[in-house]
Amino acid sequence: MSVNTGAEIHGVDLREPLSAAEVAVIRDALMQWKVVFFRDQEMDHAQHVHFARQFGDPTPGHVVFGGDGEYPEIYSIAKYRTANSKKRSRPATHRPWTGWHTDITSAINPPWASILRGVIVPPYGGDTYWTNLAVAYQKLSPKMQSWLETLTAVHRLHMPTETENGKEYLDGAEANWMEAEHPLVRVHPETGEKVLYCSPSFIHSIVGLSANESEALLHMLLEHAVRSDWTVRFKWEPGSVAFWDNRATAHLAPRDIFDVDFDRQFYRVTLNGDIPKGPDGARSKSINGDPITAL
Ligand code: SIN
After folding, report:
1. 18: Cβ below 6 Å to ligand 1?
2. What is the CATH T-level fold of the domain 7-288, as seen in this structure?
3. Which single residue of 8, 90, 207, 241 could bond 38 by disulfide (Cβ 3.0 to 4.6 Å)?
């Protein structure tokens, strides 16, 4: 994996109920490495949900579309999951942080973890990246750290255009509009670490700064957040599973899969999260939308 981020765990079968000791080992590794990976775990939906439930309460599979029929906890990450995925794969403006996100930080209580399993995996390409936002915070200067600890930021559900994602997505996003104000530095509720809590695709502006100041600061922070020094790149195989902590990471789904005809079919379960807290103890505030509720 990388020096700062990601660990591969062997010697456990995720399809079977885990012992308390196994749950604790996986959880400890997750807290330390922020994302953990498993190989050769050919699970079905029921096993995926059962594995997830040993670590928390699943949310509906997708904040806009819900879940996968019989399994409302499962979100199907199909290659062409939105009407116009082909057009969407190449945004007009590309920045180093384009596409990076932490799941649903527009909610006041973003999911704390996500568990993704690869079923149809392209023979090459289609890798996923994660960045460690606790290390990103540690690598800032003490003066910058102190200032950021006093700031909050607005996170919004990205509103795609109809051309990008199609009318069904646009209508769903409008009906489920979510917006929240989170601390820019979040205290991790389990490790106590301070985390640079910026989710590039959702973070919109820094509260109290002018538009120019906010944009300039965000550009600097987002570029810093996704520096390759604290990221990890994972090469999937059928049966691979990635389990990450959304309170300390952002991730990037691949775009190179749209340059080839290979299919890619993944499934994800997310676990319901708490309301973030800043170093001064102040909690996030909801601007729009209800908290996500567990199933
Ligand atoms: C996600 O953003 O949760 C999916 C990542 C991936 O498809 O690799």
Report:
1. no
2. Double-stranded beta-helix (3.60.130)
3. 241
